[in-house]
Each structure stands twice: as structure tokens, then as C-alpha cells.
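Reading a protein record of the kind used here takes only a little practice. The record below shows the convention in full.

——
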Amino acid sequence: MLICIHFQMRLDLTILLREQKKKHSSAARVISTIKYLHNAGAKLVLISSWSPKADSQLLKLERVAEFLSSELELKVIPVELGSGLEQSLMEDGHNSDILLLENLSQFKQEQANCSEFARRLSSGVDIFVNDAFFQSHKILASNVGITSFCYSSIAGFHFDEGMSQLKKIIKMNKWPYYAIIGGANLAGKAAALQFLASRCDGFIFVGDAAFQIMHAFGLPVPMELVEQESLEAADMLLEAAKARGVKIVLPKDFWCVNDHYPLQMKTFPANHIMDGKSWKPVDVGPNTLEEMISVLSRCKKILWIGAIKFGASNQESAGTSKLAAILYNLSQKNCDLIVVGKQACETFVGKSSYVMADLIENASIVWEFLKGRKLHGLLALDRAYPFELNWDAIYANTTLPLVVDVGSGNGLFLFRMAKMRKDWNFLGMENNEKLVSRCLDHVSQSGMTNGYFIATNATSTFQSIVSSYPGDLVLVSIQCPNPDFNKTEYRWRMVRRSLVEAIADLLASDGKVFLQSDVKEVAVRMKEEFMKYGKGKLTVVHDLEDSTSHQDRWLKENPFGIRSDWEQHVIDRGAPMYRLLLLKSSPSG
């Protein structure tokens, strides 16, 4: 019997719709993801949003499908959301074709991350592939909500490479490391710049950002060039740079244009731009570029983010082109280079068809990442946990067996277990960051060395986190998940197939899974999921002391003798608990 797996892929069509797309490696990676899935035999549905800015005709779904068919050299069929999608997925006649859904930008439910809209998008889909990396800082139905309705959610090649590039920015592996900072709105970038100050050896300020730092240094700057809302941010950044020994490089001179005669240009020293009242700065001057060459030539790692030209300028920046040439030469000499922003990337690529640099065209996602904001599109994916855990720093002895409590809440169950069983390590995985913060405070204050908590969605990250633990996984507990679990639209919220399979695979021989809930429907559903997707490795442990043992094999008592706070609350009010213990059989058994 031939089984067809339906994949849905979220992509950023603006990447493919640009001119000279063959020069952009991001476009090549997106195409690679599509062709890889198609060649693997997947039934593929593409979803995206696109803008009519380049060509109003591209608003039409049919025209975009034709364009993609040409680019991919594969048949792309346009379909409307709803019954048209369901019918196309059911038909066998076009199994080799790729489907393209209508423009998501026309649906307000997309921006609102509407659950019902996300369910409609996922209709008939088994696996979700996110390759729209530039949208990953947004909460959309097509990159976050949709993951709740698919068996598995993974990253495409473009998305994966984008994350690797972000990690390179913050990685402290080469020195000196300088950041070239341009653009406006210094206040909005304050948190990101504070973070970069902890990573970089120096800042080179250009564009509108330079005037804010010059003003903070007390240098003369025309007030119309000063962002009043950025005054405090500039002062704080200088304090942080001084405290950490970060060198600040400012422009020495500027090219200025005459207000009355726009074709007239001349250079002014940076400390005399106030003298040219009819002249407006539009670009960095030759002395500034000369100093930049001197400083950057000693660097082993460089980040260029933000525009060099000034907000008042409508013309192309000669400084941008010259800086791109400087950086291109350095990139050929064992200097790691990261270029961020559409204009900077296009200028840099124009210097050669052979580029030895990391290019990130969307500056917004980089600023959000550096601010410490969550990338929601990333966190919604399976195995998307973005941090590498240093287990030796977490536990005193990483050879001890590990116990994981999924949905650990306020941590009382784990704290009591950890106090009783010093021969085990305990890990709580909980979505609520505030609860995790309180638990970690308690771990620190109590001096506990065998307990730790992580704020994460375990259904997506269990595999990647627990698989790196050096010791054996001997027990996993899932206790009293959200009662909404039994509603159809929330059926994947807690115990998804991917979580069950990860537990079954990682659990040591004779390891156990403890499930309990005060809602029978929830307990039954958890049991069914583990029996269905446990790969035949898990069996139910009978309550040998209770021969009447409930027909459904529920345990009469908690096998560990330690109750969670909710379990105690349920028992105190005289209500039943539905408990189940599963055992992983040894290979010989």
C-alpha cells in the first residue's frame, strides 16, 4: 500500500520574486527545500504572503503559481483555502504536483494567529515545514498556530541556515570583533546595542546613529539631526561601552549637499558641520573611510548592520559602495563577515559573484534577536530548543539517572522527590516562564544540586533537550494536563505523537512513565496516545495490591508516595485521580 505524506511549507515568496534572485543564496535554499521534499515523494502545499509592490499582476494567485512553476521547473497548481484544498489533497491524479494556497496577506486571521484559521490551513496536512525565516519573529497563524494541528513541525534549509547565521553574530570566537552600526531609531535598538557591547571589541557608528552618539559625547550636532527620544539610550550605551572597554569610532568628516543647489557637494569636518547651515550631511567623508579601513583591517570578525547614508538623503551612498569594497577584501583574508540589511547585502553582492560572508537581508529579525526577543516561529517547531545545556553546570553528578516532569507547574512534586531521592537528578519542563523563574530561585536559594527547571514547550523540545543528557532517563511524569486537552481543537496541546515517540526512544530499559489526571477523558486520551505511538516498547503496570483494580487498570495510589499540589487538592475534595504507570520493556523482554 502506498502511503502519501502531506507536507505544508511556509515560505517567503518575496525572496523568490525579487530580480537577480540567482545571486541570493537565500532564494537557492528555499528552492532546495521545495525540490528536496518533492523529490522525496511528498505531497506539498505551499503557503505564503506576497506584496504587489514590484508588479500588481503578481497579486493574482494564478500568476504567482505560473512564476513558481517556471522557477522550480515543476507544476504548481493554485488552490483556494477551504474545500478546494481538501479536494486537491484527496485527488490521486495530481500526486506529483505542488499546490499553492492563495495570498495569506488578504486574511486578517493570519496576523491574529486565529486558531480556527490555522486549523483550516493545516487541513489534510501531516507535517509542517517552516522556511520563512524572516517571519520567525512574528506570531502568525501560518508559522505558530498551524503547528498545533500537525503531527510534526520542522525547519527548512533556508530557516536552518538563518538560525546558524544569527548564532554566528553572538558567538565569541574571533577577536578583534567590531560592529558597524548605522540607521536611525537608536532608542528602539538600545537593548540590542547593549547586548552587542558585551560581545564586541568596538563600535563604528555611521548614518543617523552617528549623530546620536556624537551628541552624547558633547560634540556639536544640529538639533534637527538629534533624536530626542534617543538621548537616554545614547548615554547609557556610552556608559556600558566605557565599563566594558569597547572602543567607539565616530565619523571624522561628512559629504554634505547644499539645500539650495542639490548638485553641489563638499566635505565638512565632523566638528564643523554646524558651520554649514545651508549644507546637510548625506554621506561619510574620505577621512572617515580612511580611519574605518585602518580599524577594520585589524579585525578578525565584523558585523555590518544598518544604513550608512542619512535619513535626509535620497541618493545612493558612495560610502556604502566603498565600505562594501573594503569589507569584501577583508572577507578574502580570513576575516569573518556578517552583513545585515537589504541595501548592504545588495551592495556587497554587487562586488563579486563569489561572496565569502554571511548575508542576512532582513535586519528586523536580527535586531529582535539581539534584543533578546523570542522568535516565535522557531519556538513552535519540533526540536527547536535554541540553547545548548551545560549539564555539568546544572547538576553535581551527571552520571545519575534522570527524572523529567513534563508540565512541572510550581515544582512542588519535583522538589519533594529530589529531597527524597538524592541518587536521581530531576528536570522540570514547564511553559510558564514565571513559574520556572520561581523554581530556579528556589533551587539557587536551597543549594539543591540535583534539580533544575527549563521554560519550554516539552512537546516540541523533549527530544533535543533530554537526548543530550549523559546519564539514563529512568522516569517521565505527566500530571494533570490542561482539561481542554479532550477538545478536538486542542488535541495536540500536551501529548503529541512526537513527544510519545521521543519518550519511548529515550527511556532506559525498565524505565517508567507516570500519567495521571483528575479528568478521566484526559487520562484515557494520554493512555491511548502512549499505547498507539509507543512503538510497542511500553506496557501497563498492574496494581498488584488492588485486585479490583479498576477495569481500566488505573492505579489506586500514587506509586511514589509524593503528591503534586493539584493531586492533593483533588484528593482533599474527595474526587478520584486516574493514574497509570507504564514500563519500558528490556530488549530481551
Summary: The longest helix spans residues 25-39. The mean pLDDT is 86. The two ends are 31 Å apart (CA to CA). The chain has 22 helices and 22 strands.
